[in-house]
Amino acid sequence: xxxxxxxxxxxxxxxxxxxxxxxxxxxxxxxxxxxxxxxxxxxxxxxxxxxxxxxxxxxxxxxxxxxxxxxxxxxxxxxxxxxxxxxxxxxxxxxxxxxxxxxxxxx
Length: 107
Known about the structure:
This protein is mostly helical and 107 residues long. The chain has one domain. The protein has a three-stranded antiparallel beta sheet. Helix 1 crosses helix 2. The radius of gyration is 12 Å and the shape is globular.
């Protein structure tokens, strides 16, 4: 189920999206997204350079349209590509710092 327009996504909703996007560990992917965006698919962070649930950093990934990165499905596909099909999450700060772990603990 997709959240209402403007609503924050829950961990379970982001996990379902990650699974649909083909990420092999949807819980890990969701935890990273929750740590990055708080479940807000429309969030723009890093002074206007990072977009959506997985906070895709547009200057580092010009292959993705920043406006489309606010679409959760497009953002999830970008996260899958950048993470090498879910095998390398090191580009995400919340992965490197371990900030994502608190979302796994409460899932």
